[in-house]
Design goal:
This protein is 28% helix and 31% strand. By secondary structure, the chain is an alpha/beta fold. 20% of the residues are buried.
Length: 119
């Protein structure tokens, strides 16, 4: 699962199927998840979590998630999808600089790789 950014807004991209869903902008009256100055569509996180679960159920042996950040560390965003991953399933988590230790403590159950620090 990749988090992409373009002038039209942020979106999730399913690496397995190529499908995408907009994370923003939120539609009026739609449930949102806020982090800092950002307001993301709650439905986008639900979609991404379901896509991850579907891939795992179909036998995926590696899960890549871009990105794991403050939202997941507080239990929102893709935290439930990460928590549901089977122990031992290989995962690559792209994590913001400074959050590596917290993300490893919270989500490293099995083989894990983190992207190199970004300054």
């Amino acid at each position: 699962m990749l988090a992409l950014k373009s002038p039209a807004g942020r979106r999730y991209h399913d690496l397995w199927t190529g499908e995408e869903v907009a994370k923003e902008p939120a539609i009026d009256g739609e449930p949102v998840i806020e982090v800092g100055r950002f307001r993301f569509r709650a439905a986008a996180f639900a979609w991404a979590g379901q896509r991850i679960a579907t891939a795992v159920a179909a036998g995926a042996d590696l899960v890549i998630i871009d990105e794991v950040g403050p939202l997941e560390l507080r239990g929102d965003g893709l935290a439930a999808a990460l928590d549901a991953l089977p122990p031992g399933l290989a995962r690559v988590l792209l994590v913001r600089t400074g959050l590596e230790d917290a993300a490893a403590a919270r989500f490293a159950v099995g083989p894990v790789a983190f992207d190199p620090p970004r300054d």
